[in-house]
Amino acid sequence: MGIFQNLKSDNLEETGDKLGGGFESIPSNHYLATVVMAYAGKSEGGAQNVTLHLDIDGKEQRETIYITNRKGENFYTDKSDSSKKMPLPGFTTIDDMCLLMTGSPLCEQDSETKTAKIYNFTERKDVLTPVECLTGIMGKQVGLGILRVIEDKQKKGDDGAYHNTGETRTKNEIDKVFHPETGRTVNEYRHEIETAEFKTAWVEK
Questions:
Q1: Mean pLDDT of the region 111-122
Q2: 124 versus 5: which is more confidently predicted?
Q3: Is the pLDDT of residue 56 over 60?
Q4: What's the pTM?
Q5: Are the beta carbons of 189 and 80 closer than 8 angstroms?
Q6: What is the pLDDT of residues 76-94, one digit of tens each?
Q7: 3-state SS string over the chain?
Q8: CB neighbours of 131 closer than 8 A, spacing ≥ 6?
Q9: Could you tell me the end-to-end alpha-carbon distance of the chain, in angstroms, rounded to an integer?
C-alpha cells in the first residue's frame, strides 16, 4: 500500500465546483498536463505535501501542494458547524487527480521510492534525491485549471515571522482538476452530470 492510505475522504464533507477569484508563469487557462513526477514530502512543522512536476506544452511546471495540516489531518472543522469536517483544498486537488487519472482515491495509491531532481538550498541547485512517488499517476495526462497568481514576496524577520517586502512575484497555482478526455470534474461524475459544464464556466471566468 501507499504512504497516504490513512488519508481517506469517506467521512469528509463533499466538495462542489466553485469559481475562485527561472520560472515563467503561464496565463490562467485550462491545460492538458502530463505528470512527470509526483512525490511526497513534509514541512518542518509536519504538514504533508505532494510535489508535482508537470509537462505542459513542453514546459516544466512544478507545484508543491499541502494535503494535511501539522497534525496530519486532511480536513478542517467548519466554523458554523463543528460536526462537519471540510477537506483541505490541497487534499481535494490531489485526491481529485488520483480519482480522475486512475479511478482510485489518494489513500489507495501505491507508492515507490525513486530519485527526483529537487532544489537543494545548501547547494543552490537541483540535486538527485530519493523520494516516495505516487507511481499510479506518473506518465499520465490530466486536465488542469491553472491560475496565474501575483503575490507579495515575504522575508523572515528578526521576530521569526514572515513579512511582506513590498515586492511581488508571479506564480501558477492549480485551481481545479478535470478529466483529460471528458473535461468533467469529480463532482460532475458524482452527480451524474453528463457534460463538462463547470470547465466551460471556469475558462470563461
A1: 90
A2: 124
A3: yes
A4: 0.82
A5: no
A6: 998 888 889 999 999 999 9
A7: CCCCCCCCCCCCCCCCCCCCCCCCCCCCEEEEEEEEEEEEEECCCCCEEEEEEEEECCEEEEEEEECCCCCCCCEEECCCCCCCEEECHHHHHHHHHHHHHHCCCHHHCCCEEEEEEEEECCCCEEEEEEEEECCCCCCCEEEEEEEEEEEEEEEECCCCCEEEEEEEEEEEEEEEEECCCCCCCHHHHHCCCCCCHHHHHHHHC
A8: 39, 40, 41, 113, 114, 115, 116, 118
A9: 40
**Angstrom distance (rounded) from CA 184 to CA 186:** 7
Name every residue whose Cβ is closer than 8 Å to that of residue 6 and which is 6 or more positions away in sequence.
72, 107
Give the distance between the most distant pair of CA atoms in the chain.
55
For residue 100 the three cell numbers come to 480522475
Read off the pLDDT of residues 142-177 as tens digits, 9 standing for 90 and up. Answer: 999 999 999 898 888 888 888 898 899 999 999 999
